[in-house]
Each structure stands twice: as structure tokens, then as C-alpha cells.
Design brief:
The chain is α+β, with helices and mostly antiparallel strands. The protein has one domain: Jelly Rolls, CATH 2.60.120.620. The chain contains 10 helices and 10 strands. The longest helix has 18 residues. The termini are far apart.
Length: 271
């Protein structure tokens, strides 16, 4: 869990950099599973540097990466920040191409979107000009969230021209940030390797639940967006919950209630 100082930093600025969370053995396992997961997902379209590849890492090819969502190091941190009934939403692996423009993953208005935390980690050293995550501290809250958005939309400022903090990192480091925080990256080679896993605040109020359902309707289109229209958002291996994890089962039940399992591919898996 976060120290008091890290907790205050996260709540105020919307992020915290955690150094050397993974040891050498864990990193070796992650690197092997990263390749296995993406190669399996894109057997039909090998990476050529022209388009980003993305896949979830909850399947049979990536058992350790899938386990991170239920790792106490991370879900207890999410509980510390967003409530005891926080929802484990998913994990993924990416091969990036080029810069990533300024954006928040979610809107800061709770009437329009849900919210939570993303843990992001790179498998290569990254810096200011080589694809490191850069964030606008405090932009997970109004009014700065809206002000940054307005500036990005109306100005011709390049990515590095927006005042920001660059989260330089080495393999083993992790950046934890609020999904509403404005972030981007600059530079980096084609095939930049970055992985994430995400937790949501469990919506309690009707408006929050409606916003989360709207998010679900967009999320279930992710596999089609990344050239795999017949793949379910959640693989059968994870949904089967063969080890009988009460924590995962609670998440699966709530994901179903909120509409994250409503895609035709996922419904086929659950039949």
C-alpha cells in the first residue's frame, strides 16, 4: 500500500511513481508472457511498425500477468484510494507506434464517466524523448481537467510544449495514475512495450452506475478496434475462475451487472 506521503501525492497530483516494484525473476516472466500474449493475439497480423498492437493479458498465455490484478500489492493500493469494493477491470499489453497525444482515459465529471486507477509499466528504459509517460499534475480534478482540455483543443502546442512531469522509468518501475489525469508520451521507437492493469471505483449512486454502463458500451468494442473483432473482451480462461477466487468472482459478477460482458463474443464464451 502507499505510504502517507505517496497517498497525499497521489490524491493531490493524480499519480505516483513506484520504483522497482518487480524483481528480475518477475520481469523475466513478464517479458516472456508479453511476447506470447501479443504473438498469439496477432498471429494473423504480425507487427510491422505501422499500427499499434493491443491485447488483454488475462488469458492462458499470460498467467503471471493475469495474476497481477489479484496481487495484494496492487488491489490493496486501489482499495486504499477508491474503496474496499474496488473492481479489477482488466490487464493489457501494448506495442506502441509513435507519439501518444494528450488525453485523459476518462472524463473527470462523475455524471459522464467512471473513475479509478491505472498501473502502467514499461519493459524498456523510457525518458522524455523516448516515450516515457508524461502527466499534467492535478489534472484529474476540476477545474484544471477542463482547462487543460480546452487548451489542448484550441492551441497548436506540440506535446512537449504542455507543462508536465515526465515519469522516466526503468524496467521494474511502475507509474500509478488516476484515469482522469491528462497524459501523453513523446518519442520512442516503434514497438515500445508498455503494459497496464486497471481498477475502477465501484459505482454506488445511480448517476455513477449509468456513467459506468456507458463506459462498458464503449469498452466492449476494444477488440474490434484493434483488428480482432471475434475476440471477447474477457477471455474464457479468466471468466472460468478455475481456482475459485472469491475476489475475482465478485468482480465477474459486477462486470456482468454493469454490461462489460455484453459483447456477442463474451456471451458466446459464457454459454
Amino acid at each position: 500500500m502507499l505510504t502517507d506521503q505517496q497517498f497525499d501525492q497521489y490524491n493531490t497530483f493524480g499519480f505516483v511513481v513506484l520504483r522497482q516494484v518487480f524483481g528480475p525473476d518477475e520481469l523475466a516472466t513478464i517479458e516472456a508472457e508479453y511476447e506470447d500474449g501479443l504473438n498469439a493475439a496477432y498471429a494473423h497480423k504480425p507487427f510491422d511498425g505501422s499500427k499499434r498492437h493491443w491485447t488483454n493479458t488475462l488469458g492462458a498465455e499470460t498467467p503471471f500477468m493475469a495474476s497481477l490484478l489479484e496481487d495484494a500489492r496492487f488491489y490493496k493500493t486501489a482499495q486504499q484510494l477508491y474503496g474496499e469494493d474496488v473492481l479489477g477491470m482488466g490487464a493489457d499489453a501494448n506495442r506502441y507506434v509513435g507519439h501518444t497525444a494528450w488525453h485523459p482515459d476518462h472524463n473527470a465529471d462523475p455524471k459522464k464517466d467512471c473513475y479509478g486507477i491505472k498501473f502502467a509499466y514499461y519493459l524498456d528504459p523510457v525518458g522524455a524523448r523516448t516515450g516515457a509517460l508524461r502527466v499534467v499534475p492535478g489534472s484529474h480534478k476540476f477545474p484544471l481537467h477542463q482547462e487543460v482540455g480546452d487548451t489542448v483543443k484550441r492551441s497548436a502546442l506540440d506535446i512537449p510544449d504542455i507543462p508536465s512531469y515526465v515519469c522516466e522509468s526503468m524496467p521494474g518501475d511502475m507509474v500509478a495514475f488516476d484515469l482522469r489525469l491528462w497524459h501523453a508520451s513523446w518519442g520512442g521507437s516503434a514497438g515500445r512495450r508498455m503494459c497496464t492493469f486497471v481498477y475502477y471505483h465501484n459505482p454506488a449512486e445511480p448517476e455513477e452506475e449509468a456513467a459506468t454502463r456507458n463506459r462498458a458500451a464503449r469498452s466492449i468494442k476494444a477488440t474490434a478496434q484493434y483488428d480482432r473483432p471475434n475476440d471477447p473482451l474477457y477471455p474464457p480462461h479468466w471468466l472460468a475462475n478455475q481456482n475459485g477466487s472469491p475476489l475475482r468472482q465478485r468482480w465477474i459478477r459486477r462486470l456482468g451487472e454493469l454490461g462489460f460482458l455484453d459483447s456477442p463474443a463474451t456471451e458466446e464464451v459464457l454459454r
